[in-house]
Amino acid sequence: DTGVSQNPRHKITKRGQNVTFRCDPISEHNRLYWYRQTLGQGPEFLTYFQNEAQLEKSRLLSDRFSAERPKGSFSTLEIQRTEQGDSAMYLCASSLDRANTDTQYFGPGTRLTVL
Amino acid sequence: GDSVTQMEGPVTLSEEAFLTINCTYTATGYPSLFWYVQYPGEGLQLLLKATKADDKGSNKGFEATYRKETTSFHLEKGSVQVSDSAVYFCALSAGGTSYGKLTFGQGTILTVHP
Hints:
The complex is a heterodimer. Chain A is mainly β. Chain A has no helices and eleven strands. Chain B starts with a strand and ends with a strand. The chains are: A mainly beta, B mainly beta.
């Protein structure tokens, strides 16, 4: 396994700009999750994909956020018109849908700083 | 809704001391319970898990027992090392038709001194 990878690792942007993050899950994993982690807090769920279908979005995911997973492989998370409150670490995780072993493997995260 | 509460940190211990980090949860149904660890500069890693009541998860000398009667999943280690210094997160995945979405506690920072 090469593990879950995320790019970029760091992103600094000005308020009002759009940003896009990419997540490459472990190759055979069909489930993919996005979480957001702010300083001193645990990760919070944002959205989930089963293959290419986005099955749930948290109320934390405002209309400025959109996520895709074309072809059920990599995923992108876009934030439009960024705000300073969007500054956080964005984590991606993947897992394999198999009975009793739905362990999520996390990527290193993308740290977003909105100036 | 589902929630996880961890003991407030940070926790500072000397090497070879006994460690306990408390975790309690609120959930409907029968969740699976997890401890994740985040070492400095690294991503979250699964440390151990338990999927049903009275199960004990263990890994790298750490243990936690799923206690349904007290809705707890406390993390313990008999003798900590400097290399155990990290942030520890308790988490749950709701049971039933859940697809595995994790709900995390706020994390506990552990620092172990030589």
